[in-house]
Amino acid sequence: MNADVEGLRDVLDHARTEISKVIIGQDDVINASLIAIFTGQHALVEGVPGVGKTLLVRTLAKVLGCDFSRIQFTPDLMPADITGTNIFDLQQNTFTLVKGPVFTSFLLGDEINRAPAKTQSALLQAMQERRVTIDTKTHELSPNFTVFATQNPIEYEGTYPLPEAQKDRFMLKISMSAPSESDELRLAGLLLGEETPERVLDSGTVQPVVSDGDLSGVRKGLQGIALREEITAYIVALVRKTRVHDSVLVGAGPRGTQALLLASRAYAAINGQDYVTPDDVKAMALPTLGHRMVLRPEYEIEGVTIAEVVERLLQDVAVPR
Ligand SMILES: Nc1ncnc2c1ncn2[C@@H]1O[C@H](COP(=O)(O)OP(=O)(O)OP(=O)(O)O)[C@@H](O)[C@H]1O
Ligand SMILES: [Mg+2]
Question: How far apart are CA 250 and CA 295, in angstroms?
């Protein structure tokens, strides 16, 4: 196996060990988070209150060892609260830029669906271009700038669903559900003692796996993971199928193809392989494509879910041998 691939695998294993000092269980969620981070993409973390969304993202920031900011989205949050603003300095008689929280490497957008679309879209340019415009002047952000946004799926009242264009910018949607019974028992034990997950995180026990969030070295390992032409064709066929499926109003765009390609390759790396298999693609189909699809209302009313539609897609498209 190529040395870059081995290096990548070591860092991934190390990252999982560090994260598991704080987060109990949730293996799939942790893997999906690492996939987004190691491919340099943004992720949307969805789950009911208290499943550990915020704790997860704070732990990831520690593991990356990079600077970290957090924006708590609220209905009255303004775009300038995200990007920053020019303030007139009376003494100097000039405007000086007070940088907003986007000027960081790793950004937690907590409860993103609590702010109106205008504010959410201030994040758009930042996420897509890694730069922001403030009063006509454009500022570069960190080349490692990564957003993890959390949202609560059931609180409709007083929330603003993310616009489709905004959702498309997240490589994957990570659904966090309640811990398993055995994990919840372990957690219950911890919560009574001194070593609560929060305390462990804040005590400095979690060690960074790279310096200053710089993953450029380990990312080379991803290039060493083989992806056959048949697998690429399978991915393209799956994404195209989302656009013509009976129950789908809007299918996944080309960003969906890119996301599924990158995620499948990183998933193979996480599983210790140096080539991508159709099973890797299948595992990543729902997290990368689900949030880019809109169901036809008549299907939605009938209670058809995106997960079921993706399952049908996977049955309909021929799997390469
Ligand atoms: N798998 C887990 N591992 C460790 N701690 C957990 C886990 N699940 C829940 N917790 C505990 O649950 C508490 C709530 O976590 P957190 O605040 O991250 O939830 P959240 O999903 O962000 O909730 P909200 O949607 O209300 O913001 C944390 O204090 C943490 O101790
Ligand atoms: Mg939270």
Answer: 7
